């Protein structure tokens, strides 16, 4: 059994593995801090519409990861493009759908994004943007 003084010292000394997870005091992302902001409607929404925001976020994620894979480029502009394409596509094609249909589409986009993620991650890691 550890002595109390040693136990408290062990708790205070962070491990090397946990050094990657140290929170920052800013809200700025670590990778591509100048990425485009979400549209106002996605940040100022009624909580009952959260499923709509989630759909556009997954659409955006799938779009950007696909672009990385197709181009082999993981610059900030490719990985974090404007939100306009995803937002416009949502309003043109999905805004009139019911909650359950939106949840189904969200799952489809999440699966697509996860497939692209596997191929995009090594590209982005090699370019220092993961």
TrEMBL record:
Signal peptide residues on this chain, from the entry's feature table: 1-19
Keywords: Plasmid, Signal
Protein's UniProt name: YARHG domain-containing protein
Species: Phaeobacter inhibens
């Amino acid at each position: 059994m550890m002595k109390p003084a040693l136990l408290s010292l062990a708790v205070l000394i962070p491990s090397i593995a946990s050094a990657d997870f140290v929170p920052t005091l800013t809200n700025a992302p670590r990778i591509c801090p100048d990425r485009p902001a979400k549209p106002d409607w996605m940040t100022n929404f009624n909580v009952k519409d959260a499923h709509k925001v989630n759909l556009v976020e997954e659409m955006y994620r799938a779009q950007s990861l696909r672009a990385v894979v197709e181009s082999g480029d993981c610059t900030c502009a490719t990985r974090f493009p404007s939100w306009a394409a995803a937002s416009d596509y949502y309003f043109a094609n999905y805004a009139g759908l019911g909650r359950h249909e939106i949840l189904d589409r969200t799952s489809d986009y999440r699966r697509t994004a996860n497939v692209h993620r596997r191929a995009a991650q090594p590209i982005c890691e090699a370019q220092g943007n993961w």
